[in-house]
Amino acid sequence: MSEEAPLDHLEPEEEIADKAGVMTKAELVDEVARVVSLTKKQAETIVNIVFDSIVDSLRSGQKIELRGFGSFRLRSRKSRTGRNPKTGEKVDVPSKKIPYFKPGKELKELINKALEAATSEGGGV
Q1: Which domain range does residue 85 map to?
Q2: Closest by alpha carbon to 41, among 52, 51, 32?
Q3: Both ends of the chain: CA-CA distance in Å?
Q4: What's the pLDDT tens digit per position in 44-76?
Q5: Sign of the Cα pseudo-torsion (32, 37, 69, 54, in order)
Q6: pTM of the entire structure?
Q7: Is 5 among the domain residues?
Q8: What is the Cα–Cα distance from 116 to 82, expressed in whole angstroms?
Q9: Assigned domain for 6 exists
Q10: CATH number of the CATH domain containing 92
């Protein structure tokens, strides 16, 4: 296994300039297929397995830690009284669990380096 950072294959300035919007799942599949030289179908299978594994782990109450990237976990929201926006009527909102992503230190640093490089070149973000 390589010791390089998992996101080092990206060209930061190019990625920020070209992808100013949102990356879709289809675009992620295309990128995986391109970088690893797989067919789109193979890349889609890999992406789906990763997403399904994350969801299954969260459903079972596990925390997912991806070193250098970040961690996924569940946060508990307490029950509360809300208001119906149409009628203004009080509504009981039950407690629930929500997924939460906390970016890792390395991911934060990579993003900030890319943003600094883009803004110092006058490109802005």
Answers
A1: 12-120
A2: 32
A3: 34
A4: 999 999 999 999 999 999 999 999 999 999 999
A5: positive
A6: 0.67
A7: no
A8: 41
A9: no
A10: 4.10.520.10
